[in-house]
Amino acid sequence: PAIEYELEAPVSVEYHDSIGSTNDRARELAATGATDVAVVADEQVGGRGRLERAWSAPSGGVWLSLLTRPKITPARAPLYTLAASVATARAAREAGVDARIKWPNDVVVPVGEDGEYRKLAGILTEMEGEMDRVEWIAVGIGVNANIDAADLPETATTIREEAGDVDRRRFVQRLLEELAEYRTDLESVVPAWRELALTLGQRVRVERPSGELVGDAVDITDSGALVVETADGNETVAAGDCEHLRP
Ligand code: BT5
Prior knowledge:
This protein has a 7-stranded mixed beta sheet with strand order 1-2-3-7-6-5-4, sandwiched between helices. The protein has a 5-stranded antiparallel beta sheet with strand order 11-10-9-8-12, with no helix packed on it. It is globular, with a radius of gyration of 17 Å. It is an alpha+beta fold. The chain has 2 domains: 12-196, Bira Bifunctional Protein, Domain 2 (BirA Bifunctional Protein, domain 2, 2-Layer Sandwich); 203-245, SH3 type barrels, CATH 2.30.30. The chain has helices spanning 22-31, 78-94, 159-163, 168-184, 189-196, and strands at residues 12-19, 37-44, 62-68, 100-102, 106-110, 117-130, 133-143, 203-208, 211-220, 226-230, 233-237, 241-245. Helix 2 (78-94) runs antiparallel to helix 4 (168-184). Bound molecules: biotinyl-5-AMP (BT5). Biotinyl-5-AMP (BT5) is lined by residues 21-23, 44, 47-51, 53, 55-57, 63-65, 105-106, 119, 122-124, 140-142, 144, 152-153, 155-156.
């Protein structure tokens, strides 16, 4: 198989040369009661973004979903998205890419000084549970690794394009190790996130279920919500789409 590789990981790893979506496979595994499994694929033919968007996932990328059952409330689940973006940005930086994080779920490479960027990776966190307890969480991480940028949407970039190909085995291992560390100390991700954030200090437009918000992104909270300073005071946004505006 194209990507079947042995690695020392803190979880068990299931490999696929080609799959619909690693997040769908993680859901299937969740239904069997499994936990601490990473599903990794060379190619996805039905990759998903947030809100039913399609995610391009040709051969050569790092398409990974980690299924785990942390003892947390759903309110803290967004911290897993931040943890995945920090781990991904750090691994990409070690590969020589100027990776930064755009709230909430994008790892990007800045273009110029205006908060513009190209997208290198995206995170899709899905979960099931009750009000007070997460039953399982599937953290989906899609990294444009050893792929020609021409094979992806125009707004995308790849590790190949920015710095040359990476050893995907080591990259995946690195991601899983860092995610395992946050498992025992989830809050420690917040300061790490701040250091890599491209969004903080930007003028932003945030689309959230209750409507649009324009202001300056000034911080994130302990649970990973974005703090936006508007003419009417500060507002925190737990989830939404965020666009960087020109100053
Ligand atoms: C995301 O959604 O960024 C989450 C992507 C998560 C992908 C991983 S791969 C492993 C796991 N299995 C899955 O099926 N999914 C996860 P969102 O923020 O909604 O961004 C989606 C948008 O990014 C699309 O509408 C496109 O505009 C753009 N896009 C699609 N493919 C891309 C790519 N490979 N690189 C950069 N941008 C892309």
